[in-house]
Please model this.
Amino acid sequence: MTAPAADAPDRKADIDAFARRHKFRWTEALPWAAAIACYFTFENYHALGAQIFATILFALSLDLLIGYAGIITLGHAAFFGVGAYAAGIMAANGFHEPLSGLVIAALAAGIAGFASGAIVLRTSGLTLLMQTLVVAALLQELANKWTSVTGGSDGLLGMKIDPVFGVFRFDLFGNTAYIYCLAVLFLGWLAARNLICSPFGRSLTGIRENAARMRAIGAPVERRKIIIYTISAALAGVSGALIAQTTALVGLGALSLGRSGELLIMLIIGGIGRLYGAFIGVPLYMIAQDRFAAVDPVFWYFWIGLFMIFDGVFARGGALGVIARRRGGSPPQ
Amino acid sequence: MADFIPIAVSILFHGLAMAMVLYLISVGLSVTMGLMGFVNLAHGAFAMAGGYVLIILMKKQGWPYGLALAAAVVICMLASLVLERLLYRRLYGGDELDQVLMTMGLIFVSVGGATFLFGPVAQSLDPPAMLRGQIHILGRDFPTYRSFLILCGALLVTALWLGLERTRFGAQVRASVDNLRMAQTLGINTSKLFAIAFALGSGLAALGGGLGAELLSVGPTYALDNLVYCLIVVSVGGLGSIRGPFAAALLVGVTDTAFKYLAPELGAFFIYALTMAILLWRPRGLFGTAS
Model:
């Protein structure tokens, strides 16, 4: 990488390209344009749309961990669940304001992420996978047994949510929920995008690629991992709170391995480490699930399974990975 | 205090039976993970297939128990060989996440396929008359089938251990777990080795699924339901070893039985906490050799 002086012009081009990658491209407006267009064209599907946006935020938080920091987890639902239960328990006990509910959920999930991250991030590989899985399983058992607060296996019922800003009431058709989730997702995306373009975000990629070298150049690897784990957990908590508030229901499934696994699948289908994988994988999976699983769950499991096998073996890197390869292009950032 | 001993014996007995089943359905996973570094989440699907083949052959075809069990093992081994050559092999040394996606896909296909073929309700095993009822040992009655299970498990563990320690194939497996490149350099055909180890592991899982059908009921979601315990056994035991998963299966089987019996309100809490503590203490598991 030590270029002699003769290569100087080339290096300048490289550096320019590197500096430009933070600039917004017109393609990045596409998901938002599509979301707004769908509001007017699919009026009967606003409730589903809201769920999709909240789940995209959840997948985005997972992408920060897996795609950028290289922390592979099978227990991300832990933080989604903590956020959902935090927002739900507040709303069921007389505190009905939604926005502060999101903040509390982010705090609760962030604290859970910090506390568990400080312990489990000492490990790596399969051990880390197991530790994250076990943390989620422990929390699920806790929610299952602590029925007086969480409602146990019946789920948390009796939530009441005030209108957003005191004006926009959550309606039966999900019109408010659609805009509400979309707005929160937009803010979450902005935050995530800024984060990964920042020096901190670049250092995460460095840690993913080679932790030993990052340590050698003086980066506090362990501390940075815990920080991104906490941030990601908080984002997942917001996503959980969004779903809790817009569906007025929280169940044990929010903390389950199934939830973590399904999310991982959606993200891999879209493409990991490219920021927009979540925006492709989540709608694809959830719309297909909505169409087919309601008709025949057996059929759904079988075909999505076949699709996943095919995807894993032949279309590596998910949809965005395939597109990038076709264009002769870049590995993930 | 007088009833302490009967309770302890009962917990140990049922815990041991559980441990044997857990061991059989996990040991193959440990070896393939240690050998190929492949996260095969769908390993439990072979155990489920074993259980289904056994039950269907006995119920629909009227085959005797022993023969049906042998057929289940052979069928699952052949099926796993086909899958290994067709799918798994393409992802060796590849991206972990693609492996996760592919094997989760296999689980989903197994769930959908089993529901389609055998219906959503779990199937029950009718053991042959010889293995029903109680057996009288040392002044106590024990269920015959579970005693048989423990005996089979003990024999298999011994056979596996001898096979790995004393045979040429076992030595090749151990060499490949320790250092794959060096093993290849020495002329070991690792591609063939992988396929055989994979098929053996799947066969053992099928045997565990069939033998243990009375304990872990055989339903379409088998692979999902037992995934966490399988992974706990493998990670606590340590990858690529034979005795590691055995120790872990004993630990999980006995403690799980004990807590379900003595403190059901705690649920599986203790097992999870124990797993976490052990993995913090020994990140490679109790007997881990491969990293």
About this structure: The mean pLDDT of chain B is 86. Strands of chain B lie at 134-137, 140-143.
